Amino acid sequence: NESASMIETVSLECLLVHHNLEYVDPVLELLETQWPHEKAIREKRRQSMVNLSRDDLPCHLVLLQNDGVRREVIGHSLLKRADGRSDGKAAIVYSVVIKEDLRGRGLGRKLMTETEDYARCQGYSHLFLFTDDQVKFYKRLDYQECEPITSLGSNSKRLTTEQVEALENLFAKRLGNSLHSKMSSQTWMKKRLIEEYPIQGPYPPQEMPNLVFTQAAVQLGQEISYCGAVLSIPWQQQAGPSCGLVTCNMLSRSLLNSPIPKLKVALEPCYCTGPANVKIAGEIGSAIKMAAELGISNDGEMFCAYNMCYLSQLVHGVCLEVRESGTETRDQIISSVLSGYPCLVPYDRAVGNLPTLAEGRRAHWAIISGIVIPLETPSNDIAWNLKYSSEEQSCMLLDVGQASSFDKDNLEKVIADRKEKGLMVICVHGMP
């Protein structure tokens, strides 16, 4: 009761330190009380608050208590980007502290709520942290234990977990930072802040030929002419490891207003990931929420094509078909795209989202939304509705949704004659 009355008689607010520099010294005193360091480290902390902080991270947040007479610094947290993440925009929270004589009064929860709200407003889908003695506290705030991550920079995704940990320990030792030392003894935890990002409009069709021409030239190392076909696909950024669910959302949304019949068949979830819950309580929600309720996904990750089909029908009312790859895969993709059907494909992703072979360790999902072939002279028998020219080279595309059957049939013949000389696909996925 005393704790409750204390919080009721004062007002609390959380501010960004770099917009309120008068709180820098009190925050430094609070941090020094919790984690004493030599003068050089204190100066680094000051520089971090004054010169290195910005709205879109890194930034320091300060929790203030106002009793009507004065404002007192009682809490602090530091947000940094989780660089090198291959599954979307995430942040790490460090140096979470409440003034010692005010602990146990719900102020830590308040500080974390404000920190999470700020990260969420900046578009971060997940918040990570590590702790050695507050696991129960963070679990009460809906954090789950997870694998260690890093804030070393975007190049960290090229390193193994062991290499990243070794680098972080080295930097921690040089800084004398007890929070970052002995990383192996820390428990890493995470919390999802954003369930799904909103679906946006498709890439502007008139800009597609220029993009295809530029990317193809990069991949082939030369500028030549191309032609092909493309489907219009709405785009959604993935939130965390939900690339499969996001591509399923995009693909299903692209078909909702199409004349393609949306058949419904009796489907059940696949049990490859363990027992599934086929009884859904209440209304059908988002794909990620349904996947969790069905027990076929923990945090949005999907490894089963059959479960993707099940969710597409359950959530969007669109029935997908699973086909195994083989000698006819290329012809099936060509026919599917020219018929207005995008293809959803799993693959291992390398740097730049290009395909690689990694035995499933870098699994990713993408939508094949177009096909492109090199062609010196695009056919004059086809009414190309998307065009780009650069000196003697060009890129001519057929917008399948706006094309006639005659033009699509003619393009299919052109591709059939040239496919052995090189065939590229246009892909859409949830990474910006």
Secondary-structure element order, N to C: HEHHEEEHEHEHEHEHHHHEEEEEHE
Question: How helical, in percent, are the residues?
Answer: 25-40%
Task: Provide the gyration radius in Å.
Answer: 26 Å
Q: Note the beta-strand portion.
A: 15-25%
Q: Pairing-aware structural class of the strands and helices?
A: alpha+beta
| Overall pLDDT metric | 86
Principal-axes geometry comes out as: elongated
Describe this structure in words.
The protein has 432 residues and is of the alpha+beta class. 32% of the residues lie in helices and 21% in strands. The chain contains twelve helices and 14 strands. The strands form two sheets. Strands 1-2-3-4-5-7-6 form a seven-stranded mixed beta sheet, sandwiched between helices. β9 and β10 form a beta hairpin. The longest helix is centred in the N-terminal third of the chain and has 15 residues. The radius of gyration is 26 Å and the shape is elongated. About 2% of the residues have low confidence.
Brief descriptors of the model:
432 residues; seven-stranded mixed β-sheet; 12 helices; 14 strands; elongated
Task: Reconstruct the topology from this structure.
Elements: H1 2-9, E1 11-16, H2 24-34, H3 39-52, E2 59-66, E3 71-81, E4 90-98, H4 107-121, E5 126-131, H5 135-140, E6 144-145, H6 161-175, E7 187-192, H7 208-220, E8 226-230, H8 243-256, H9 287-294, H10 305-316, H11 329-338, E9 343-349, E10 355-356, E11 363-374, E12 386-390, E13 393-399, H12 405-418, E14 424-428
Parallel strand pairs: 4-5, 8-13
Antiparallel strand pairs: 1-2, 2-3, 3-4, 5-7, 6-7, 8-11, 9-10, 9-11, 11-14, 12-13
Helix pairs in contact: 2-3, 8-10, 11-12
